[in-house]
Amino acid sequence: MQRGSNRLSVHRDEEMKQELQGLIRSGHPTRVEEWHDPEPAADDDPEVTTGPVPSPGAIGEAETLRFEFARHLGRTTFPAERSAVLRVLHERHAPDRLIALAQELPAHETFRTVQEVVSALGLRPQA
Known about the structure:
By secondary structure, this protein is mostly helical. It has helices spanning 10-26, 61-73, 82-91, 96-103, 114-120. The chain starts with 9 loop residues before the first helix and ends in a 7-residue tail after the last helix.
């Protein structure tokens, strides 16, 4: 028997699973009243989950690329040469644009950080 700090009882947990079965199987909301459904995203909402999220004030191309590379490469990739960077980008299904940029990196240079990758592409962060 599992004991923990669960604020829902086993019965309520099973009840909630039953409520979600229709949504999971059909792939769309199954309630009759529309006001129960969550509101869809608006056209002018920022792409927080799909696009890069630069820090406040960082609006340049170098910063955007650094965030995109960092999101796909992570910390465990480094230190790495171009071949290792390309392999990780392919494994993690990075966008074709990032892979094309990584192919332009010098072949036998070792990169220790994402910033070094972006700098090797000839892009410098804005001051």
